[in-house]
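Protocol step 6 of 9: fold each sequence in the batch and record its structure tokens directly after the sequence line. For illustration, a two-sequence batch is reproduced in full.

Sequence one:
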Amino acid sequence: MVRDCTGRTVTKTAETEAAYVRRFLALQQAACLDSFGTGMEQVIDWFTSQHARWAESTVRQYRAAAICLHAVVMSA
């Protein structure tokens, strides 16, 4: 079993990873609309400024999407 940086057990199928990419692209678009830019760091800055906006379960999904995409980028 794989654990993420928060200690949670993570299981990801190809479908889940594809969904994470879609979620991150949506975050990227929203950050861009708010003039934060589209780079990973800019999107994360925007995301962390929006936490009060969403339910904790939504935050977990978007956080997982960012972590997954970051891992993909770093392994490339």
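Sequence two, same batch, same settings:
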Amino acid sequence: MEKTVHYYNIFITKNGKRTSYKLNHFFDKLIYPLKDDKKLKICSKKSIALNKYIMPDAKIGGNEANIRTMAFAEYRNDKPFLGKKGTSRREDIPDDVLEVTRCVLFPNDFLIAVEYNHKGCKAGHIVTYIERFFPADQDLSIEIKQVQQNNILDKVLKSNKITSLMVHLDTSHTGVVDSLYGYAKDEERKKVSMFSQIAKKSVKTADKIGANIAMFGFSKGRRKGLIEKKDIIKFISLLDLNNPALTNLTVTFVDPDTNTPQTKNLKTEAFIADIIYTDKDSPGDELMRDEIMALYNGKRDALKKMHSRFKPLINIELEG
């Protein structure tokens, strides 16, 4: 069984300015002590709750004492059935059904490592969840930035010239087009409706001919077309590049720093990611913590320096 892990710089902001307040203190003080029913929140139409919260052993000191392991549960609205192979047995599930996403928070590095669960909550949902607990009238929010490889995505989004774009979609995934934009808000999705229509037509055509991969793309020609660079930039910026249904997103652009043409597959080259291999379909929270910690320690220097790009940070105190 493979589990993919993505890394994000994460900050509490006040009045739009990043702060030095550590998220572990916020969880310790304002979320973890709550009764279970108070931990359930509706986030982007999803029912999400902090399901488990693991602190380091009391004997551990230094920076590691601030590390927290969290499991977030997303409760499904559409429940499957219980059954047994080789029989016609089918029974309703009386209890709620949930998907679990595990995270490890490294507060001193303003970093969170998040397990990718296509059916469960994503990093953006976790952001919304945290914000549900912020005290009112303090102008607080969460800023999260997925850790990039060599700032490739930023360079694409800042480029003054994009000459081609090619998209590959795996049609075997249910709701492939609807899930492309992750947790983007409806009003943002409407801005790229033209691309959504093209994607839907490509998926429909692939289904008709029995193909597993749908492809569509654009290339700059001599004549000026209807699709402008700003529209392509908006489309790229909203895509959930972590979505397994998106198998390829290759862009040819002019690097704004060097003014040289570049071709990059943003699916594989945009972000730092790791894969955990386990012989269990549902590895335990402690196992996931240990595996993520090992991955973090293996690239600690590269990850630790990422948050320095976001300084200076302001100091605040939160009122509970």
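Proceed to step 7 once all outputs are recorded. Observation for sequence two: Residues 44 and 125 are 7 Å apart (CA to CA).
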